[in-house]
Design a protein that fits this description.
By secondary structure, the protein is an all-beta fold. It folds into two domains: about 110 residues, Immunoglobulin-like (Sandwich), CATH 2.60.40.10; about 140 residues, Immunoglobulin-like. Strands 1, 2, 3, 4, 5, 6, 7, 8, 9 and 10 form a ten-stranded mixed beta sheet that branches. The chain has a seven-stranded mixed barrel with strand order 11-12-15-14-13-16-17. The longest helix is centred in the middle third of the chain and has 5 residues. It is globular. It starts with about 40 loop residues before the first strand and ends in a 6-residue tail after the last strand. This is Transferase.
């Protein structure tokens, strides 16, 4: 899939988010573990289509008998020191001097960024670096029918070269598809997951744009069924007129978060793009801003993906013409 082109967007504004963004990790690492040698230990990752991850580590000289070895893969949630925000997965010899740990899709790993460590005996856990990553099963992923929360985990390399895991746990979930921003508004397509009856849920559904600085301000637009070839009862489409959010703009930067509200108005799903192998969409899927004649002043409006891969639109002042 080729991401849409367009100028890079400025950094996401500060403010409340669904999961709480945390800063990038510190560069400090603990002392080396002798069993892994003097180099930083690396982990190969294999993702499965259900949301599970398998980690394989090189550990030359370890015994092949599981009873003779004790180690763990440690996942620590970024920005939290609480014991509850740590998961330990047993590491066991997998033959050929390798150790394996498995994170099943059935483990309810809370949303966030999880730094990956290896713990050996009484030594301090040590950060892992990325090895090979087989994420082919995540490309254009289409989860099967279920009402349980959707588990998504994507391993990635941090800016310091260490291994981390991005986790989402959502239900219901509205997966964003094609987006077409135009001079009048944003036309989008999506697919609904993790509801009992998607057709009934979408009948009369609306897309809500919620003003982040004042969540009581909401703009709605109908969400209709997709009639294109290959579409089914889970697919939906919408068109959001930029004039409505622009009418609330009073200068500066405004962000509107997009949600899908089901029939009856009781359940909502954040519109996001998480069902692929790209951990951070923000700098990859970029869209051109559109000029809007807002009542307050000339403005620019356009969609973007947040640091959590949620879909939002932003309204800002139109830059002065060059020259």
């Amino acid at each position: 899939m080729t991401p849409p082109s367009g100028p890079a967007r400025p950094s996401e504004p500060t403010g409340p988010s669904r999961t709480g963004n945390t800063p990038e990790e510190p560069t400090t690492v603990s002392a080396p573990l002798q069993v892994f040698g003097v180099e930083d230990p690396a982990a190969d990752c294999i993702a499965d289509s259900a949301g599970g991850i398998t980690f394989d580590l090189d550990a030359p000289g370890v015994p092949d008998a599981p009873g003779d070895w004790s180690a763990a893969l440690v996942l620590r949630r970024r920005g939290s020191d609480e014991e509850a925000e740590e998961f330990r997965l047993p590491l066991a010899p997998n033959g050929d001097g390798r150790l394996r740990a498995v994170l099943p899709s059935t483990v309810a790993l809370p949303e966030g960024r999880w730094d990956v460590y290896v713990a050996c005996a009484d030594a301090e856990p040590r950060r892992l670096v990325p090895g090979l990553a087989d994420l082919r099963s995540l490309v254009d992923r289409r989860p099967g029918p279920s009402t349980s929360p959707l588990a998504v985990r994507i391993p990635y390399a941090t800016k310091h070269g260490n291994l981390s895991l991005r986790s989402w746990l959502r239900g219901p979930h509205a997966e964003a598809g094609d987006l077409r921003p135009g001079t009048r508004g944003l036309t989008g397509r999506g697919r609904l997951y993790r509801v009992q009856d998607p057709a009934a849920w979408l009948a009369g559904a609306v897309v809500e744009a919620r003003l982040r600085r004042d969540p009581d301000v909401v703009v709605t637009t109908p969400a209709g069924a997709v009639t294109a070839e290959g579409a089914d009862a889970q697919d939906f489409t919408f068109t959001l007129d930029f004039a409505e959010p622009a009418g609330h703009w009073q200068g500066g930067l405004d962000v509107w978060d997009l949600w899908l509200r089901g029939a009856g108005g009781t359940e909502t799903a954040r519109i996001a793009r998480i069902l692929d192998d790209i951990a951070d969409k923000k700098q990859i899927f970029t869209y051109p801003a559109q000029d809007v004649a807002a009542p307050y002043a000339p403005a620019q409006v356009g969609p973007y993906y947040t640091a959590d891969n949620d879909l939002a639109i932003r309204i800002d002042e139109r830059p002065p013409a060059a020259g």
